[in-house]
Amino acid sequence: MSIVELVSLVTPPSRPIGVGSPQGWLDVEKRLGGRLPSDFKQYIDTYGQGEILDLAFVESPFAWDAGDRWFSERSRILEYFRGALDAYGFGLQAWPEKGGILPWGSDSDGNYLSWKTSDSPEDWTTVVIFDRFGGYTSIPLSMTGFLCGVITGRVEVEWCCNFDPNKPDFVADWRFR
What we know:
Blueprint: H1 2-9, H2 22-32, H3 38-47, E1 50-52, E2 56-58, H4 68-87, E3 101-106, E4 112-116, E5 125-129, E6 136-139, H5 143-152, E7 170-172
Helix pairs in contact: 1-5
């Protein structure tokens, strides 16, 4: 499982910010209108909200007031996706459409790290939508599989010029300190 590999590569914080609970995850999924991949839930419960190796900022639905900010950000980004994906003719749809794109994080270049959804959340793969929709790339890996792939060099990220494996492993969101 990718979360086990990720923990072996990147030390989790001793006090993660914005971890979930079984009931909390049920509430988030109910409000979202669908289940989330187990590796995302394990990631949030292990690392919380923050930035991993200056590669990806992953926001937790539990770090803000009852997830309101997490949901409002998803709503804002999805509205942007709906217009831009059509305008650029990518042939992609936004969540909650079948096979829709749902953002799970971002990078320091403004790229959206997202899932390409499918019937089973365990089969969701990664799609990177480039800043200002200059293009996108599909990566047939889960969220944690993608992170592990980048960290180990199995996945090339020439589009992400700020990735630095020598940066601190994980930086918890400073707004909560």
